[in-house]
UniProtKB/TrEMBL annotation:
Pfam families: DNA_pol_A_exo1, DNA_pol_A_exoN, HRDC. It comes from the Bacteria. PANTHER family: RIBONUCLEASE D (PTHR47649:SF1). SUPFAM superfamilies: HRDC-like, Ribonuclease H-like. It comes from Actinacidiphila polyblastidii. PROSITE patterns: HRDC. This is Ribonuclease D. Residues 1-23 are annotated as: Disordered. Gene3D superfamilies: HRDC domain (1.10.150.80), Ribonuclease H-like superfamily/Ribonuclease H (3.30.420.10). Transmembrane segments: none annotated. Residues 231-311 form the HRDC domain. InterPro entries: 3'-5'_exonuclease_dom, Exo_C, HRDC-like_sf, HRDC_dom, HRDC_dom_sf, RNase_D-like, RNaseH-like_sf, RNaseH_sf.
Length: 425
């Protein structure tokens, strides 16, 4: 690092704009030959490797990567085009067990895995910031607060599938990994001082070892505005339109929202137009939509209208967990009292430790344990149950005494339980 950068990490002076990468903007790697050179350079580098990926969310179907950025001491920065280099397994092999440094790792790991890249170890600077108690944990805020530099974030939502990529976008992309390792080192020291480094390492290991997320069940239920749709026949219309839109979006490789908006789907479900003429009069199906498209959407509506009653979707998705907390006071007042006590205890400890409540223990874990506690609520059994629900060892150690006390305490009045604030999901 230059003297100016070193000074910025030690002072509270006004942040310094970071305008250009140290070695300039590297050429985009878009051929097997160029990739081989990058692989050799990064294999010969030293220390952790900063990794980032840019997607075309809102423009293209799915969450594939359209640019991968890496930086490592001794290798510099590389910008890799996954369109020209769709298989990065050779790079993954060259890095071996090298620690990856990412910001908000869970956002980028799935699209990197599609390219053949999976970390053996990682350091997540966003999660590290949360555990260290930072109020703002976006990359720009962290770089500014910890290192004293400001990053330009004006290109975060552009269409990264554009080719060729404009130079300002490439500069932005290179700067996103410019200081990631520096940020990692500063946060590691901060966590060590706070006595939280082992907690963070356990969290990072859990992320790196996590299996791919299973496909979401009934993804159409996440349609924005779905809460307005109450009748099962109307819900069927939402499902059929969503599935038709998803198929079209996949075939055209465009974001589903650019094919048909969620608002239009909900409007059609509520109005249930009988024909194309009536459909064309609805918001979201205006004059810009061609006859063929209108017929496609009307066909989906007609399919829903023709379904027998037994095949209509249920109003809510099947769920094996406890009911919503707002219903506990009526369904099981004793469980509601347990939940109130547990939430109060967890919230107090999280505040004392200066970290988000949901990072101390998952709210879902607390709910499940309070709704169906073990018959033997001893500390050993509670600890084992927390671990089985996915809590890491550091969480089990800190939360077991709180949960044991909450599960064995004399129940508070149901009114107090119902009034307890609900933590973030």
């Amino acid at each position: 690092m230059t003297d100016a950068r070193e000074t910025a990490t030690r002072t509270t002076a006004a942040p310094v704009p970071l305008l250009d990468p140290r070695e300039g903007i590297p050429p985009v790697t878009a051929s097997p030959e160029a990739l081989a050179s990058v692989v050799a350079a990064f294999a010969a580098g030293s220390g952790p490797v900063a990794v980032d990926a840019e997607r075309a969310s809102g423009y293209r179907y799915g969450q594939r990567a359209y640019l991968v950025q890496l930086r490592r001491a001794g290798a510099g920065t590389a910008l890799i085009d996954p369109v020209g280099c769709p298989d990065l397994s050779t790079l993954d092999d060259a890095l071996g067990d090298t620690e990856w440094v990412l910001h908000a790792a869970t956002q980028d790991l799935p699209c990197l895995a599609e390219l053949g890249m999976r970390p053996g170890a990682l350091f997540d600077t966003e999660l590290a910031g949360r555990l260290a108690g930072f109020a703002r944990v976006g990359l720009g805020a962290m770089v500014e607060n910890v290192l004293g530099f400001t990053l330009e974030k004006g290109h975060s939502a552009v269409d990264w599938s554009t080719r060729p990529l404009p130079e300002p976008w490439l500069r932005y992309a290179a700067l996103d990994v410019e200081l990631l390792v520096d940020l990692r080192d500063a946060l590691e020291e901060e966590l060590r001082v706070q006595g939280k480094l082992d907690w963070a390492l356990q969290e990072f290991a859990a992320i790196a070892a996590a299996p791919p997320a299973p496909p979401r069940v009934d993804p159409w239920r996440r349609t924005s505005g779905m809460h307005k749709v109450r009748r099962r026949r109307q819900i069927a219309v939402v499902r059929e339109l969503w599935l038709a839109r998803d198929l079209t979006a996949r075939e055209r490789d465009v974001s589903p929202g650019r094919v048909l908006t969620d608002a239009a789907i909900v409007t059609a479900a509520l109005e249930s137009p009988p024909n194309v003429h009536a459909l064309s009069a609805l918001s979201g199906f205006g004059h810009r939509m061609g006859r063929r498209q209108l017929e496609q959407w009307q066909a989906a509506i007609d399919r829903a209208r023709a379904l027998p009653e037994r095949e209509l979707p249920q109003p809510t998705a099947a769920y094996t967990g406890p009911p919503p907390p707002r219903a506990w006071a009526d369904k099981d007042p004793v469980a509601a009292a347990r939940l109130s006590a547990a939430r109060t205890a967890v919230s107090g400890l999280a505040e004392e430790l200066n970290l988000p409540q949901e990072n101390l223990v998952s709210p879902d874990t607390v709910r499940r344990l309070c709704w169906a506690p073990p018959a033997d609520a001893s500390p050993q059994v509670v600890a084992s149950t927390l671990a089985s629900l996915g809590a890491r060892p550091w969480q089990v150690e800190l939360v077991t005494p709180l949960m044991t006390a909450s599960l064995t305490a004399r129940p508070a009045p149901p009114e107090a339980a119902a009034a307890a604030p609900e933590p973030p999901a």
